[in-house]
Amino acid sequence: MSVGTSLEPGLRGASGDPRPLRVTSPAPVDVWEQVLASALNALPSQTPTWLRCVCLVEGYEDVSRLYETADGRRLVLPLVRRPGLGPILATDFGLPVGWGPGGLVCDGGELHPEDVRMVVTDLGRRHVLSTLVRPDPATAATWEAAVPASVLREERMTQTLPLDGGFDEVWRKRFRSDTRNRIRRAERAGVLVKCDDTGDLVRVFQQLYRESVDRWARRDRLPLPLARRLAARREPPRKLSTVAAMLGSRCRVYVAYHEGRPVAAIVVLLGARTAMYWRGAMLEKLAGPVYANYLLHKTAIADAVAAGCTSYNMGDSARVSSLELFKSRFGAVSQDYASYRIERLPITPLVQRARGGVRRILALRQVRE
User: Fold this and answer.
1) Which of 244, 255, 243, 247 is nearest to 207 (CA)?
2) Are 127 and 344 in contact (CB under 8 A)?
3) Which of 29, 57, 35, 28 is nearest to 241 (CA)?
4) What is the pLDDT of residues 102-153, one digit of tens each?
């Protein structure tokens, strides 16, 4: 990650917010770390180390932005871009698919609507084709109040388990009774959970993930070679190994064993006060009957409490899905939020209309044939 270059100072925020700005890109790592030191609820995916992982694995370049306001506040926006494309053809991601939320992290951790307005105005003025920002869901209300209605939105839903009160409080009052029963049944069935933060269990997770891909291919009736190629592009093997090496003790791999065989695994990332469930894989026919995933998450949640975390982010889910139901059984609270696509020209609506036209033409051809 290179030292930041200061851009033209004297930029101004949106109408009604005349504070001058100083913008530096990429954001200097030392300043970013200082901001994080006072933003204790920041997600693990909002750190410079995480952005380095994205760049190393996916080949992006760091175009993060540090905003310094006239009143001395500092805000950092994680952003990456494919190298080789001029800004006019570039799409900036904060963050790319599969890498969790980005969004603004700021001094003190308290984001204000005027901060969002200021940053969205700056992003809209740049000579960049498109900028996609997926903010921390915990700041959803602030973003929605400040982002203009003209900005494109993709509606999302995440689920987060509050950990305040300690694990006994979480166990008794937030886990549903059927969840506690399933955890006890997993323990009686002899399911054992191992936790590792040295990278030793990465290969075990990757093998379970490969077997999960085969199961998903059969479920979705995809040719197996195609499903494997798509999975390898979306989740290359180096992805988890890089994250485990870069984050060290902040990346924990949990593996559930039954009768000596690994049957399920999850990856949990730790921030100062926020734990984030990032990835999972299982052998459904072996893990399901012994409720291995319930014991995995119970173990990770207890560890997150012990590490001083006050929330356990369980990631996005589709409404009225089995995944949403599973997470809700632990007491995870649903939170609607949106990702935002900021464009100087309406590229995305034009692409969407073109795709819709192609689908209609293909449908007509099928009818005529």
Assistant:
1) 255
2) yes
3) 57
4) 999 999 999 999 999 999 999 999 989 999 999 999 999 999 999 999 999 9
What's the rounded Cα separation, in Å, for the pair 95 and 104? 11
pLDDT per residue over 206-249, tens digit each? 999 999 999 989 999 999 999 999 999 999 989 999 999 999 99
Structure tokens at 123: 């992003």
Instruction: Name the amino acid, one letter, at 235.
Output: E
Are 42 and 274 within 8 A, CB to CB? Answer: yes
Q: Where are the beta strands (DSSP E) in the chain?
A: 5-6, 11-12, 20-25, 61-62, 65-69, 74-77, 80-81, 91-94, 105-106, 130-133, 152-162, 192-196, 251-258, 261-270, 274-282, 311-316, 333-343
The residues near 357 (Cβ < 8 Å, ≥ 6 apart) are: none
> What value does the CA radius of gyration of the chain take, rounded to a whole number of Å?
22
Q: Whole-prediction pTM value? A: 0.90
Element (DSSP H or E) covering residue 211: helix 202-220
Quote the tokens at residue 206: 């990757």
Quote the tokens at residue 43: 């997600």
